[in-house]
From TrEMBL:
Keywords: Calcium, Hydrolase, Metal-binding, Protease, Thiol protease. Residues 613-648 form the EF-hand domain. This is Calpain 11. Residues 1-22 are annotated as: Disordered. GO terms for cellular component: cytoplasm. The active site is at C106, H264, N288. GO terms for biological process: proteolysis. It holds the Pfam family Peptidase_C2. Belongs to the peptidase C2 family. CDD domains: Calpain_III (cd00214), CysPc (cd00044). One of its GO terms (molecular function) is calcium ion binding.
Amino acid sequence: AMSRSSITIRLTKDSDSKGTARSIPYHEQNYQELKRQCLQQQRLFLDPEFKPCAESLGYKELGPGSVNIQGVVWKRPKDICKHGTPHFICKGMNRTDVCQGQLGDCWFLAAAASLTLYPELLYRVVPQDQHFGGTEYAGIFHFQFWQYGQWVDVVVDDLLPTINNELLFVRSPEHDEFWMPLLEKAYAKLNGSYEAMNGGYMNEAFVDFTGGIGETLSLKIPNTKLFKTIRAALSRNSLMGAHIEVKRPEDIEKPTPEGLVKGHAYSITGIHKIDFGEKVVRLLRLRNPWGYQEWTGRWSDKSPLWSSLDPELLKKLHVRDRKDGEFWMQLVDFIRHFDVLEICHFSGDHTQEGSHCCWNVNCFQGCWIKGYTAGGCQTFQPWDTFWMNPQFHVSLLEPDEKEVKKQEKRGEQYPNPTCTFLVSLMQRERRRSRRSGKDFLLICFQIFRVGTWGLWDKCLSPQVYNPVCPPCSGYSRDITRYLQLPPGDYLIIPNTQSPLEEANFTLRIFTEKKHQFLEIDGEISADGTALQTMTPSKTGLDKALEETFLKYAGQDQEVDANQFQSILNQTMTALTFLKTDGFSREECEKIIQHFSTWKTNKLTLEDFQQFSCRMQEWQHIFLAYDVDRSGSMNTHEIQLALDAAGFHLNNRTTEALVKKYGNPWLQIDFDSFVSLMVHLESVFIHILNFFVKKGDGTGCTEFIQLLLVSLSM
């Protein structure tokens, strides 16, 4: 065989995937411009993207026709306030401004209550230059949220759902204050409806308020450093919350004998250590977003334990017997009664006390597509499609500074230093999909340690990959894994539970030191063997095949497209174990164009011998990777077969080619496989010749996609 050089095209990034601090208008609604128009036209804003109607309330329990929304009237604050003028903010924003209404969004409200403790964060989400009075009022307000790598500015009108002139959802104890109801409305718009906000985890809202890093800790796993972790998180202004898990749906929001509520989100707003006799008591301050229903055990508002303490300390800790939803609780009782602690580190700090750093961050937007990149979970079966999932290579280049210092201090007794490595996977826009019957999927990611020699071959045996930890999975929007790993190369594979599940995702990588991050799907290459010119065996063609060729050939002993089509289809009738619709005239013309030495639109006997050698090789590959012996190949089998043939394509290119050569069920039979292989050979030879002239091996995505999908052969 005569070999050609191999070729690798590394696709350049189309754009910077990292989120920026600058916000973009949601649905292209520019707040300043819309407000200017309303003031100029002397009218109040009415949001066409989130109308005051049943569809904005919900789709089922709060949807059109539901008894739960009978009597709902949308009103502006100026029509709700019985006395005086409404205010956007009264006497500043604080955690007691949040009282839950008839919506199961305690997770969002608890997160908002925590947010009020940190003005710098709060003012980013809730811009302060908004009010109801004066000549600047136009019935329009705006709020900012972090969404999958980008801050968005969400505009709303101030029409709020009421029943009997009382707000249906969140309200403030100050009945003329409306920043919180309008914030809730903006978040409902972002998620498609109010009802879409039912049920969730505080970290989801924490992340949307800050663009931070959500971390979940089980309180049932012994942790001697828990108090230090909480104290350090509060000192770094991290947002925190906790909840009690429920095992049965009927237990949701059911009170315990001690006054706590199951399945309900509480924000953690303070921490204190006091000397009580000969003991040190560790206390946490929590808040129920309902604004009532408090803990009744030790150190609750009415607990006699407070009576022995200094009144000045009670004043400092804001201990008061008021039904405001806020209470103190001893750490041991907190651990006993609560199940999960959620922390959002918006500043990029570690959870370890006293350590501070800025993260090096990479953000990637991807998707699971049925038949292409939705490989599902790992089954370890011969038909396992797990390795179809998107794959990402991370190189941890150097250990953390504190780890190096530990090694220098302890010498050889200290093991090799490690790198802080945090992975966050988010499934996108699933709340908006609830209207169409979809919800959060069970998502997962696995992290493998690999050698550099195995990074680019997605079809390597799974045995070459060593998992560094158990899979991280969950039905929540965000799942996060916090690790300490030695420097080296790692493979991250995000997946859904089933190969049939489609969704968009955001993958974020955080490290203390610099790292290299790229999607393995970012390269397209062809091995030299895939482009070599096959040398026919000395015995030449199979005698019967040669006789068939000469039978159809003209006096010039060459065949045109019609004659070649007859030869191929006669040959295929003997291959009963392969599915085929027969070669079309167009397919035959393209094969001739590729294999014809003299480009005369005809094949000589020597050209036909070259093609026959290639076709036998492709037949062997087809049979080897038709794993289910169906006579045709699905997309996963096609990817394996193409890799075996020496063509390594990314998922976008494979998807486009299967759409072009496959049937509506994404299956490719043998004649289509032959046509695909001819297409790839031809295109890569074009690319090789182009880059030989150009003098480098780097191409852009658009150029390669155009060649591989559209170039005629």
